[in-house]
């Protein structure tokens, strides 16, 4: 049974697209047929991070409007034959992402893929709702700062009340916490929340911690998902997270023990 | 108004429509109550302004009730003037409670609603007829079950336990709101707002495993996080009302 995974956060610029690309590649590398879908209509950039922007002919809105078939719109990754990308459009209207139409599109993808990774736009409006609505599992991408944690909390509330699973009274969407852009040194300085703080506030299972690294920007500039830049810390961290997602037991790396921070007190933790 | 809203909704052709019910729904709100008796105190509005400045977003545009208990005067002009002064502080006076018929006339004259006074009804239930009490003992009423919530209450969510207690066994996030006509129990960190006794029950209490609340309120007497003593932050506490004062005591 195919699984739909949404990469979501509420807040923008936290690393959803970076993580979507990394997870899609990681799952495909382990032999799973994987599709990664960009729901960020109007601000597409998954195709750039995946390095296939020049091969985009049709996009998700074309498929939903019936102007192209899914087969025509899916772009086969050049590095891995079991990985495909469905791009978002740069110009079109995000109002096209009607839940019924998105449901049909995902059902069609379910036939050919094991995992469908949905890269959500920021916010809690139509596009973000469309991306998370049909999810079986949600990866909550969170930066170690108060506003990002708050937005993630909001998204968790939406997942537990407005998703298809919630509305149909089915098992809840499985929630995973992915803390990204983590800088242990700044945590020690009390300038950022620690992983423990974030996890304690959101009260969901920790999937992984991705360290802040120049390698991420470098990777996106050359259109190669950072997980493929072997030996770098984000690549290792994403590999670990994908492994844990698939049920492997892998110890957390890149998290140094942190003192209780200034932010923790702000968020109301005991001193 | 007809009891059955479906029957009272007529179409423009004069044919009764069975399909569209009247778009009227009941809803419950928490409201702040201002006691008219307190207005007499020196620099009332100045002190109110200070209070508002402590939690501006909480007060912004908030509806308010005027409690007329223990007072007798007040003309339509007085109520109009009070409405205006509260509006300047971005508070909306929507009605009065308590008071006598003359005051009600005057209040209604300037568009204020008359709210039933819970205090009056409280008094009547306390004066128990012994005969009645015996009847009650013979057929004890079915206890109202509390509303039980087992999943985290996230930012932006609101839960209201109408006519009963609220029990939450998972964390309550900052930006979430718990409301109950009865007491509130949180067996986890409480970081959001908790308002117990929202229909006026002054005996309602709030219990939580770890206090980090943005706001605590019992029967409209509230305290925002800055007004909560450092010594009880992060502790297991019980919150109850003593006179007009919220008492927060540790229980661990
Ligand atoms: N671990 C990281 N270290 C350094 N920069 C990162 C990291 N993750 C993401 N970024 C950078 O943050 C920005 C936003 O990332 P992106 O994945 O596009 O976020 P989103 O999709 O949530 O808006 C990009 O410039 C990206 O290169
Ligand atoms: Mg993005």
Key phrases:
heterodimer; A: 271 residues; alpha/beta; 16% strand; B: 252 residues; 5-stranded mixed beta sheet; 8 helices; 28% strand; globular; binds adenosine-5'-diphosphate; binds magnesium ion; AAA_dom (chain A); MinD_FleN (chain A)
Helix/strand layout:
The complex is a heterodimer of chains A (271) and B (252).
Chain A: E1 3-8, H1 16-29, E2 34-38, H2 46-50, H3 60-64, H4 70-73, E3 75-76, E4 83-86, H5 99-112, E5 115-119, H6 126-133, E6 137-142, H7 146-162, H8 164-167, E7 174-182, H9 184-188, H10 195-202, E8 205-211, H11 214-221, H12 233-245, H13 262-266
Parallel strand pairs in A: 1-5, 1-6, 2-4, 2-5, 6-7, 7-8
Antiparallel strand pairs in A: 3-4
Chain B: H1 5-8, E1 32-35, H2 36-39, H3 44-54, H4 56-59, E2 62-67, H5 76-88, E3 91-97, H6 101-109, E4 113-115, H7 118-126, H8 130-138, E5 147-149, E6 158-161, E7 166-168, E8 177-180, E9 184-190, E10 193-196, E11 206-211, E12 215-218, E13 221-224, E14 237-242, E15 245-250
Parallel strand pairs in B: 1-2, 2-3, 3-4, 5-7, 6-8, 7-9, 8-10, 9-11, 10-12
Antiparallel strand pairs in B: 11-14, 12-13, 14-15
Helix pairs in contact in B: 5-6
The complex binds adenosine-5'-diphosphate (ADP) and magnesium ion.
Question: Nearest-angstrom radius of gyration of chain A?
Answer: 18 Å
SSE-based structural type of chain B: alpha/beta
Low-confidence stretches of chain B: 1-18, 119-137
The coarse silhouette of chain A is globular
Give me the strand/helix succession of chain B: HEHHHEHEHEHHEEEEEEEEEEE
Mean pLDDT of chain B: 79
Q: Would you count the extended β strands of chain A for me?
A: 8
Strand order of the largest sheet of chain B: 5-7-9-11-14-15
By DSSP, the count of extended strands of chain B is 15
Tally of individual helices of chain B: 8
Distance between the termini of chain B: 54 Å
Q: How much strand of chain B? A: 25-35%
Helix content of chain A: 40-55%
Reported for the largest beta sheet of chain B, the result is: 6 strands, mixed
Average pLDDT of chain A works out at 93
């Amino acid at each position: 049974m195919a699984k739909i995974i949404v990469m979501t956060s509420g807040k923008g610029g936290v690393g959803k697209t970076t993580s979507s690309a990394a997870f899609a590649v990681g799952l495909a590398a382990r032999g799973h047929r994987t599709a990664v879908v960009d729901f960020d209509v109007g601000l597409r950039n998954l195709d750039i991070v995946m390095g296939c922007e020049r091969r985009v002919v049709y996009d998700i809105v074309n498929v939903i409007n019936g102007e192209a078939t899914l087969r025509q719109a899916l772009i086969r990754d050049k590095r891995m034959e079991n990985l495909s990308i469905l791009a978002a459009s740069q110009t079109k209207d995000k109002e096209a992402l009607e839940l019924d139409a998105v449901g049909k599109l995902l059902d069609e993808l379910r036939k050919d893929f094991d995992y469908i990774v949905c890269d959500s736009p920021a916010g809690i409006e139509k596009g973000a709702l469309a991306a998370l609505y049909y999810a079986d599992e949600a990866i909550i991408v969170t930066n170690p700062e108060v506003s990002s944690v708050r937005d993630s909390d909001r998204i968790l509330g939406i997942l537990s009340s407005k998703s298809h699973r919630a509305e149909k009274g089915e098992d809840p969407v499985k929630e995973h916490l992915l803390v990204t852009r983590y800088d242990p040194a700044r945590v020690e300085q009390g300038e950022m929340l620690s992983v423990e703080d974030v996890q304690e506030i959101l009260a969901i299972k920790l999937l992984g911690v991705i360290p802040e690294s120049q390698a991420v920007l470098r990777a996106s500039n050359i259109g190669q998902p950072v997980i493929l830049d072997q030996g770098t810390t984000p690549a290792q961290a994403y590999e670990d997270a994908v492994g844990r997602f698939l049920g492997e037991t892998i110890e957390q790396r890149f998290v140094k023990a942190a003192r209780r921070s200034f932010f923790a007190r702000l968020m109301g933790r005991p001193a | 108004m007809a009891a059955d809203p479906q029957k009272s909704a007529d179409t423009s052709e004069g044919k009764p429509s069975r399909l569209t019910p009247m778009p009227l729904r009941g809803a419950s709100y928490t409201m702040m109550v201002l006691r008219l008796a307190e207005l007499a105190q020196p620099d009332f509005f100045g002190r109110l302004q200070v209070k508002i400045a402590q939690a501006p977003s909480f007060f912004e545009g908030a509806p308010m009730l005027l409690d007329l208990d223990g007072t007798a005067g007040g003309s339509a002009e007085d109520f109009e003037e009070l409405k205006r002064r509260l509006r300047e502080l971005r508070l909306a006076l929507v009605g009065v409670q308590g008071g006598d018929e003359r005051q009600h006339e005057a209040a209604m004259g300037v568009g204020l609603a008359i709210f039933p006074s819970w205090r009056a009804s409280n008094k009547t239930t306390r004066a128990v007829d012994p005969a009645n009490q015996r009847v009650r003992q013979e057929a004890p009423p079915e206890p109202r079950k509390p509303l039980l919530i087992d999943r985290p209450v996230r930012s932006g969510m609101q839960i209201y336990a109408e006519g009963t207690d609220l029990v939450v066994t998972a964390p309550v996030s900052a930006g979430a709101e718990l409301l109950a006509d009865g007491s509130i129990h949180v067996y986890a960190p409480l970081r959001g707002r908790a308002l117990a006794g929202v229909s006026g029950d002054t005996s309602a209490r709030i219990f939580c495993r770890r206090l980090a609340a943005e706001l605590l309120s019992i029967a409209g007497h509230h305290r925002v996080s800055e007004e909560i003593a450092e010594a009880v932050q992060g502790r297991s506490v019980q919150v109850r009302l003593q006179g007009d004062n919220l008492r927060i005591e540790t229980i661990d």
